[in-house]
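Team,

Forwarding the record for the chain on the shared tracking sheet. I've put the sequence and predicted structure together so nobody has to dig through attachments.
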Amino acid sequence: MNILFFTTIPPDYLQDSILIGLRQLSSNNLIDYPQKDCLYKNNSSEDIYGRGFTLYNYLSEINVNRKNIKERIINKEFDLIIFSSIHRQIDLLKEYYPLIKKTKVVFLDGEDHPSLFGYNGRYWRNPKFWFLPKIHKRHLYFKREFTPETLKYRYYKIIPGFLLKHKFLKNGLPISFAFPDSKIIKEFPIKEKLFPEHIVDIEIAKKLGKKDKYVFDNEEDYYSDLKKSKFGITTIRAGWDAMRHYEIAANGAVICFKNLHLKPETCAPHGLNNTNSITYKNYGDLMKQINNLSNDSYKKLQENSYKWILENSTKNRAKQVIKIIDANSK
């Protein structure tokens, strides 16, 4: 399959994990356009959010022909075209979308905000956005922060939410981040302590005397600390999905997710529950659950957490996306 994958210069965890996964599938001839420099080895990642851990400086350079993209779209060279961060790709949409005829087009939306492309205040207030194509009506639209608010924004927040509970968005599909296969542990490491040095929940960090800001300057030390820890703490960030969830599980620790029970079912991350993680409300609740956890129960959580991260590898996520696209093309 010949794939044209429109990128953005800034990092985007959804875009970047899907791009890595697609590159791993040998059956694809993939062109990232423009080249996503921060994903490739020997590129600086100092200014990247998260210090460039996990996804960045990961891909090896290969010979990719990125010339004459416009003419190649017109000549239908590509079997699939992906706009991978649509809220940031309005100029690309305006330039290339009118040229695309009878080619499968898919949109990724990894924004923390629940609204679809074209359906929040940014677009409503500016007349130049009023006539953008309603892409979710015409093409598959994978959205990470897919919540009940998504429907409300779709109807311009005019229709009360209780009237929308049985409605679904045409072509709207949930999706989440993914983690590079080669960075997932092959066997469980020896655990030396309960928690890592970096705790993103401020309450827990203060109680444990840990830091809630960046602790490590390099990925190796960060992963090593997680490997030594039985548990890793995570919370909702700007959105519910965060790369930290995956980093914890990939290094053999059990995810402790604050208020996970409040996450909408349709919203990423998907598949986390009380069989593979701990959901807690506060420090007291967390420590009570941990103290009541038997060795066998911990082992079961750890094993199920490992199954979860394998299912959420970059390669598997890319396979899932391609499978859905193929199924909807028939």
